[in-house]
Amino acid sequence: MKSMPIFAVIGHPNEGKSSVVATLVENDRIRISPRPGETMESMTYPVSIDGEDVIAFVDTPGFQNPVQTLGWMRKFRGPESEVFAAFLAEFRDDPGMAHECELLTPVRDGAGIIYVLDASRPLRQVDKAEMEILRLTGRPRMAILNCKTGEEQFLEEWKTELRRHFNMVRTFNALRATFAERMRLLESLRALEQDWEDALGLVVDVFARDWQRRNAECAALVCDFLRRVLGMAETASLADPDRRAEVEARLVTRLEERIRQEEETLHEQVCLQFRHDRRSFVLPEQSVLRQDLFSRTTWTVLGLSKGKLVAAAVAAGGAAGVALDLATLGSSLGLFAAVGGATAGLAALFQGERLVRGKVLGLGIGQRSVQVGPLDTVQWVFVLLDRFLLHYWYVIHWSHALRDEDFLPALADEGGKQGFTSTWNRESRGLCAEFFKVATAGDDSRAMELEAELRRFLEEELERMSRL
């Protein structure tokens, strides 16, 4: 790319400039504070894809003295093209104009302008002074309307005034912007200046391809995760047959912990794909993902209804083991009420139905061992997939501008379920059930074929979810 587009993000203090930059460059570490004047110096943040910087945004301090600045510029008697260079030369060492010098320097150097304002407050004279200063720059410029409180009673007044000073006006909430909204903003920047069309067109294409790559990687990660977890089992020697229950309990605990760690690793990998620091990622208080993977709440809320599980098993060929578990599923879910407590665990969760199979294996004369796992209910694969998809949904909707805030996006909720898999068609659910069947049976060749098919389906599903 010959010329990298650069945009200075400018506005009044505490109007959301740093939030816009953090969202556009996907950077959790950009300092954002409710106190005005936190940004003292201009900072340039490039967006790098495949090791190449493709676009950059400059986070600037807020205007400090726009009325005085505009007054000086109107009195300037030199050539209009030299007014900003003259202003910077005169006030470079003036503390009272430090912010103005910082924010106008990248504009003088050729940056485009993104003007951010809070349209939930009334228009003031100082705002008009800021707009006029930016109009005088002659640079391509867009205004972003950010209603911080959600109130829009002043929106039309703002739009009318902004149209007099800017090439384009858009609404953009940096705290809630989806990938699709970010792409539309980039498309709008492309239309600001004809000389930038080709460069910004490449940026839009690169962003779209990179997003597809992330979704493909996430689909591959979850398929690899499923292949490992669905076949997991724990085995220990059984020297004393009377201690079988004790050995089984120990193996169940060990199996649970291994699976939890696998899921935690998967979630961390998804966060990294979308440039989030896992430590700063906060789930909503009411999210089912806050529940343990093996809690009764998780298994009640996620997955499929009994009817859809039956249909999925039939579509997958209705293996005997799957049919058996479906027959007992209703009573096992009803058992949750009797288990009690918040942490059921595998052994308590499935007692009676023996969905975690405890097998006694002969190893030779006088030797035996106990095996726990793999989990032998088709519901398992849908619970795992729903937890992955729900986590993915939160990750892609978690703005890089958020700081210690909860955000709960609208979720598909069918029949009291929060699971995404409940919205899939019969064929897609059948594919998952068949993959579960062959993965737990150890049919490696068929599992590889189904995994490739499942991965392609999940790539399409993730792409669809990210466009909502």
Automatic annotation (TrEMBL):
Domain (G) ranges: 8-146
Keyword terms, alphabetized: Coiled coil
MF (Gene Ontology): GTP binding
Pfam families: DUF3482, MMR_HSR1
Coiled coil start-end: 245-272
Domain of life per record: Bacteria
Presence of the UniProt keyword Cytoplasm in the record: no
Protein name per its UniProtKB record: 50S ribosome-binding GTPase
Organism taxonomic ancestry: Bacteria, Pseudomonadati, Thermodesulfobacteriota, Desulfovibrionia, Desulfovibrionales
